[in-house]
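Sample entry (296 residues):
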Amino acid sequence: MNALRIWCTRNLKANVTGRWQGINIVRTTRSSNRNFTANRNNINNNSSNGKQGVKSSNRPDDDQFTDWKDVMEFVKDISLHMGLGVSIAYCFTEYGFSTTACEGPSMMPTLQEEGDVVLVEKFSHRLFGIHGSSEGMKRSHFNMMQNDENSSSGYSFRKDETVDDDSVIFDKLTSGIKVGDVVVSRHPHNDGTICKRVVALPGDRVELHPKYRPIRNKRKSDLIVVPDGHIWLEGDNTRNSNDSRHYGSVPASLIVGKVLLRIWPLRGKSIIGRQLPESKTQNFTGSYVYSAGELW
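Predicted structure, serialized as C-alpha cells:
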C-alpha cells in the first residue's frame, strides 16, 4: 500500500508540474505572437495612409476562455488519475488483501489479547467456496471418495494438513474454506467482526462439551448438524471464547477472508496454520466433531 501511495504521489506531482509549465509556455507564446502582430499592423497602417490607427489584436475574452479550457483539462487529468488510484486501492483492499487487528483472549495463544495485526486474504473463499461442497450430502460423498485421513474420527483431524509454511500459504490461496482455517467473519447477530477458527463444515456433526450442553441434557448430548452453507467457528482459547457454542453455526456468506499470517508484533512463528487446539488437555472445553459421511 505504501508503494502504491508513493507511485500515485509521484505521478500526480509530475502531471501537476508539467501541466502548469505547459500553461505558462502557451501564455508566453501567445503574448509574443500578439506583440509581433500588433507591431506589424502598426507599421503597415502608418506606412499606407497614416490616418488609420493601430488595431489591437488583444482579445481578453478569447484569452480567458482559452485559459479556462486549459485549467479544465488539467482538472480532468487530475481527476482521472485520482479516480484510478482510489479504484485500484479499493479493489485491492476489498477483494485482495487487507490488514486487521484481532483483539481479545478468544484466540490465545495463537493471537494475543492485546490485538495482533494480521494479513487477511479475501478472494479464495469467493472463488472456491467451501472445501468439498457447501451442501452436507455432497460433502459426505466427497469425504468418502477422498478417503481423507483427516476425517477418520472426531478430533483425530486436529493436526496441520501441511507442514511446510509455504505449502500452507499456497494451499490457503488456492482452496476453499477448510477445517482449521482461521477466518475473519462478520458477527451473525451484532455489528463488527470476529476472528475464529473453523472446526466444522456443512454436514459435520458437532457434539458440545458438557459445559455448554442444555441443563436438561447434561449427560447425553444431541449432535448438532451444521446446516448447508454454514460453518462452525470456535476460538482456540476454548474456555474464554464467545463463538458458535453460544450463537450457533455461522452463514458462510458472512466470511470476510482467511487469516494468512501475523504482521505485528514480530515474534515467533508468524504464519497461521491449520493446527487446531489439543483436545486432550484439561483446559479444553471445545466441541467434538464428526466429519460428514463418517460412520459412528
